[in-house]
Design goal:
This protein has 219 residues and is mostly helical. Helix content is 80%, strand content 0%. The chain has a single domain, classed as Four Helix Bundle (Hemerythrin (Met), subunit A) (Up-down Bundle). It is a multi-pass membrane protein.
Length: 219
């Protein structure tokens, strides 16, 4: 049976989610616009920015928002299917991030530059490592739900959730530091606007995860 938001609260939350989804889209599209407007398509750095923005800025945000009951894209999708979509989106995000980092490493190798010396680079590497570990834990969560010999699924889920939140925060902070490199094209005000957009939708995307953590430990 298709569920239609009935109460004023449900409709309001659905509208709020839609607005934040649009804010996320605006953030990603603005970065893509600036990159493709100012770089050649064969520029490795351009694709590093594009892929890491899609990985951290889009896929990870959507992976967290998938479990929002008010998610405007998945109103009638049950939790089990959301889990499968979450896994697919995370794998896609990880692939984008891996490719983006690999392109940057290759570019630095060709130039004889040192790797991971900036705050942006270090945080990006840390978030990649955390993403890899988080995916492994996510696989264990799925296995634990099918086999009781692995222990309580809830324990795996909360560790996966906590690590996932830490990964996401680290990744978007790295993305925020990376916006500094676009200031020559966006201008200072444009860069600041992008940071505000990023902060707003990141804060919203974390609400559901924070509530889940609170309910697990104190609920």
């Amino acid at each position: 049976m298709v569920h239609q938001p009935g109460t004023a609260k449900e409709r309001s939350l659905l509208i709020i989610d839609t607005l934040f989804q649009q804010l996320l889209a605006v953030f990603v599209l603005l970065i893509l616009w600036e990159v493709f407007k100012n770089y050649n398509f064969n520029n490795a750095h351009a694709w590093h920015v594009v892929l890491c923005t899609l990985g951290f800025g889009l896929c990870m945000a959507e992976a967290l928002l998938l479990f929002n009951k008010e998610n405007s894209f998945l109103v009638n999708v049950d939790r089990a299917k959301r889990g499968s979509i979450h896994a697919a989106v995370m794998f896609l995000g990880f692939a984008c991030i891996t490719a983006g980092i690999a392109l940057k490493i290759n570019q630095k190798e060709e130039r004889g530059s040192k790797h991971f010396t900036s705050t942006h680079g270090i945080l990006g590497l840390v978030s990649w490592i955390l993403t890899f570990i988080s995916i492994i834990l996510g696989i264990l969560v799925g296995c634990a739900q099918k086999s009781t010999s692995l222990g309580r699924p809830a324990s795996y889920r909360i560790v996966h959730l906590l690590l996932g939140v830490a990964t996401y925060i680290t990744g978007v902070v790295a993305l925020g530091f990376g916006l500094h490199y676009l200031v020559g094209y966006t201008g200072l005000h444009g860069r600041n606007a992008l940071i505000i957009f990023l902060a707003l939708y990141v804060s919203y995307s974390l609400i559901s995860s924070v509530k889940s953590c609170y309910n697990y430990f104190f609920g």
